[in-house]
Each structure stands twice: as structure tokens, then as C-alpha cells.
Amino acid sequence: MQSSAIHIHRHGDPSVLERVDVAVPPPAAGEIRIRQSAIGLNFADIYQRKGAHGPYAQAPFPITLGAQGAGVVEALGEGVSGWHVGQSVAYFQPGAYQAVRNVQADRVLALPAGISEELAGANLLRGLTAEYLLRRLYVVRPGDAVLVHAAAGGMGVLLSQWARALGATVIGTVGSPQKAEVALAHGCHHVIDYRREDFAERTLALTDGAGVAVVYDAVGKDVFVPSLRCLRTLGMAINYGTASGDVEGLDLQLLHAKSLSVCRPTLRSFIATPEDLRRSADAFFAAVAAGQLQLAVGSRYALADVQQAHRDLEGRATTDAPVLIP
User: Fold this and answer.
1) For residue 175, is pLDDT > 90?
2) What range defines the domain where residue 49 resides?
3) CA 24: distance to chain centroid?
4) What is the DSSP string of 27-63?
5) Distances (CA, A) of 274 to 39, 108, 211
6) From the CB of residue 168, how many other CB atoms can be counted at a distance below 10 Å?
7) Which of 40-49, 110-119, 251-260 has the lowest mean pLDDT?
8) In terms of domains, do 120 and 130 share one?
9) Residue 150 carries which DSSP code?
10) How many domains does the chain have?
């Protein structure tokens, strides 16, 4: 059968994204064929499109971007059990920008009641990322103060809600009054407009000079080094995204006085095994079921409009979790 897909044949700006028709063979042994209803749109896709540094294995062109989606099971490969045709599922596996595709069965997740395919397609990667950032890489505890950069974005709203549910005091940074309203409605106790205030000084003032336990930074170059000033003794700065560019040439002496830690993690390491993927997804779905997380879908784009979707995401013109609709 044939399927619409988005390929790149070289790295570059959004114009390199091309719509093509590809052949989809029957699912091989251990695979499930999924007809997607929602495909996640994430900043990681932009890094891959540009050929930037990241957790991507070198692959020959053409490359199909994306790593998450949701839809219904259409067919099962040999040896696959526990699934049925018509079942709503989500998955995490590279090559998502395609209407119909085959996915390894051990990367597929059954969707629980209350989480639609569109919500899962838009939020799965962000939810799994929030899970390891808050529960494993740094374990947020009641009474901690945390700083979330880009608090009105798709990742920021999940981190802020979940951190608050874990008992933290959540400080968020945003770039406009409109985004401040979004952040305050999604878990932040305090919001700093970094275009109007020095976020480091304001964070220290909000914590009576003590600083925060952890900084969650998806911005990178523009904020990472100033963020170190916001940390308490033994605090951790986590850079999990680089929307403003890579953090380069870090002077380790900046960490010395307060014995700070820094980390540049990737989700793939934390869900490398099927067991880790399912444990992470179970924790994410449980937080949704408990009302700790309110999932939303941001802008919806047709798969054919992927170039505009990338322009909007890269220009920070989106809130919540944008999604591609095949």
C-alpha cells in the first residue's frame, strides 16, 4: 500500500521538508502497522532537520523526521500478540512523519481511557521527558523550588503542573504577558517575563536568596549560564533542549563555589528498553488519570503544511503541544 510521508534529502531550513508517497509493506515479524491520526511535533524534529548535534544515529537520506505518533492498529506481523486491529495506540520510534507506518511492537503503547489519540500524539514525547526529568534524573521532593524555562511551551506546561503536584514551588520564565497567563494557569506559582526582568535576580528574590534546587532549560545558549546563578548549593542545571543554540565552552569553575551539577540528557537513554518505556508511560498516564496533568493540543497542522508548522515552532509562536494531522 501507499502512504503520504515527509522526507528531507538534505539538512536545512523548513523548505527541505518534502511531501512524498512511499510504499508501506506488510508488517514484518514483531511489527505493528499503524494508521496515524496524530503525529507529534517537537523541537527535536527541528534539530534533526538542521543536522544539529543530538541523539540521532547517522542515517542516509532521505530521512523521515519525527519520533512519536498515535492512531489505530491496522495489521499485526508474525509473532505479535496482545494487540488487536482497530485498537487505539501510541508509540515512540523514529520516522513518524508518515500517515501509515510499521512500528516495532515493543515500542507501542496501549492508550488508557481518557487519553485520546490526538492528545497522545501531541504529548507523548513531552510526557515521557517530563517523567524522567522530574522523577529520575532529579527527584523532585516536596518543598523544592524549581525553575522552568519556556514555561508556556508544550514541555513547560507539563513540567510545571507535574512539579507542582509533587510538592514543589514552581517558578517559570516566559517571553510575553500572554504566555505568563498560560504559565500561571498550568502550575507555576510565580512567572518571570525575561524580556522585562533579570530572571536570575528575580528567582533569587523569590527564594529569599537561597536559589532553586533544579533548573529545567530547553532554551540553551541564551539562558544556561545565567541560570547557574539561580541554583542553591548542590543544585542541578538540566539542559534538555537548545532552542536558542547549543551551550558551548562552559567554564567548570562556575560550578565550583556551590558544588553545582549540570546535565545534558536525552529521552532515548531513559526509555531505551521496552520495560523502561512502559514504566515511564505508565507513570505519565497515571499522573493524567490522577488529575495532576491536564493535557492539551496546541496548533493543528495538516501533514502537508509541515513547513509552516516548523516555522511556527522554531519561531516560538506556539503554546501547548502542536500536532500534525495526516
Assistant:
1) yes
2) 2-124+295-325
3) 27
4) P-TTEEEEEEEEEE--HHHHHHHHT-SSS----PSSE
5) 21, 9, 37
6) 25
7) 40-49
8) no
9) S
10) 2
